Amino acid sequence: MAKLAKPIKQLTLDSLPATSIKQDTNTKPAVQKQIHITKIEATTRIDELVLKVSFRLEPSWRTFSKVKADLFFEDTHISAVSIQVLQGPLGTNELEYSWVMDTKNIAKGTYHLRVEMYEAWSSDERSCQTIREITVNYVPKTRQERLIRIPIVKSVTGADMAVISNQEKRLYLDLEKAMKKEQLSRRNDF
After folding, report:
1. CA-CA distances (angstroms) from residue 52 to 45, 64, 100, 111, 164?
2. Does residue 111 contact residue 117 with C-beta atoms inside 8 Å?
3. Dihedrals φ, ψ of 158, to 5°?
4. 20-68 pLDDT tens trace
5. CATH node for 34-146
6. Coil, strand or helix: which one is 175?
7. Which stretches of 59-174 are assigned E, i.e. beta strand?
């Protein structure tokens, strides 16, 4: 008796019946990758300007690996940062980044700051690029403005008492040291 050939158990695309291949008519359009800058705020410190940028990655942080951010001050490029997107249980769609700028020689005035964020590719191609600008009314804070003003006492007078100022006290201490040196030198002479 001849053995009968067993049918192939694993189906391939060629072996599927035509009725089993379904056309999915309800396919949703693919969500495009996007970077949304949700908030930009600037705060002034002593000789510093802090720019905090909050942004959201869509559809998910899992689709991004590295995001680049460029900072422009009055249309002059001043900083470029690569932000590594965490790919694990600590990853999140909402991220935040801050720049602290030294503003010692910047005069009081209104300035334009621009942030450009994008996903960089190896061929210098930028995808998912987004731009957001902010106008900052910069008023420098100095240490003198933040100090609490307290008056300084110049002199104290009273009846039947002697008040010694710090200068007089130093003078008496110097005289006392000189007298002790002189006494030691006299003892050594004998």
Report:
1. 13, 21, 9, 16, 54
2. no
3. -160, 160
4. 445 555 555 566 888 888 999 998 888 888 889 888 888 777 777 778 8
5. 2.60.40.10
6. helix
7. 66-73, 76-84, 94-102, 109-120, 126-138
**Selection from 8-12, 54-58, 122-126, 143-147 with the highest mean pLDDT:** 54-58
Which tokens belong to 152? 């300084």
* Residue with the two structure tokens 């700051």: 113
Q: How far is CA 75 from the centre of its chain?
A: 20
DSSP 186: H
Q: Write a three-state SS string for 12-73.
A: CCCCCCHHHCCCCCCCCCCCCCEEEEEEEEEEEEECEEEEEEEEEEECCHHHCCEEEEEEEE
Residue for token pair 């790919």: 87
CA angle 131, 132, 138 (to 5 degrees): 140
- pTM higher than 0.70, yes or no? no
Contacts 24+ apart (CB under 8 A), 82-86: 82/120, 85/57, 85/61, 86/61
- Model confidence over 59-111: pLDDT tens digits? 777 777 778 888 898 888 888 888 777 777 777 778 888 888 888 888 888 99
